[in-house]
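User: I've been trying to design a sequence by hand for this structure and keep getting stuck. Would you show me what you'd pick, starting by listing the structure so we're on the same page?

Assistant: Good idea, let's start from the same input. This is the structure you sent:
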């Protein structure tokens, strides 16, 4: 049985499965954090929401990319991925705090593509910074 889990195809499938599940959980958490319904807004053609959500998807996936690269076990991969996701959420909250002249979520919900793009770049950029800090124990 141990040989089965050492097979690189099985390991890759396991890592993929955990990362996809984590992405779904992370997107659900982001859905609760935003005052609007992401997928309804995207379906309606709100490009600002699509950009912000796309950045979050890329950010979480990129964090798990680094977590997979630097950890041998699925447990450590998951722990580092969850920690990275928490940091990504913190970055998004800091973005809201650092823009007191407007509310980020309101602007994105109203279709402000410039704010949506900055949210995309922020999530993407921070995911590389967080990923750079992830290493194996």
């Amino acid at each position: 049985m141990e040989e089965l889990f050492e097979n690189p195809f099985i390991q890759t499938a396991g890592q993929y499965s955990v990362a996809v599940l984590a992405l779904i959980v992370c997107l659900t958490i982001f859905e609760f954090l935003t005052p609007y319904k992401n997928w309804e807004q995207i379906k309606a053609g709100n490009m600002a929401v699509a950009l912000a959500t796309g950045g979050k998807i890329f950010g979480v996936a990129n964090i798990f990319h680094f977590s997979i690269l630097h950890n041998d076990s699925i447990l450590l991969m998951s722990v580092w991925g969850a920690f990275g996701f928490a940091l990504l959420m913190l970055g998004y909250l800091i973005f809201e705090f650092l823009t007191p002249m407007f509310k980020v979520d309101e602007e994105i919900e109203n279709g402000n593509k410039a704010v949506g793009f900055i949210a995309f770049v922020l999530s993407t950029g921070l995911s590389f910074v967080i990923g750079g800090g992830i290493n194996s124990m």
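That's my pick for every position. To get oriented when you compare it with your attempt: Helices lie at 2-6, 8-33, 38-43, 47-70, 74-97, 104-109, 113-133. The radius of gyration is 16 Å.
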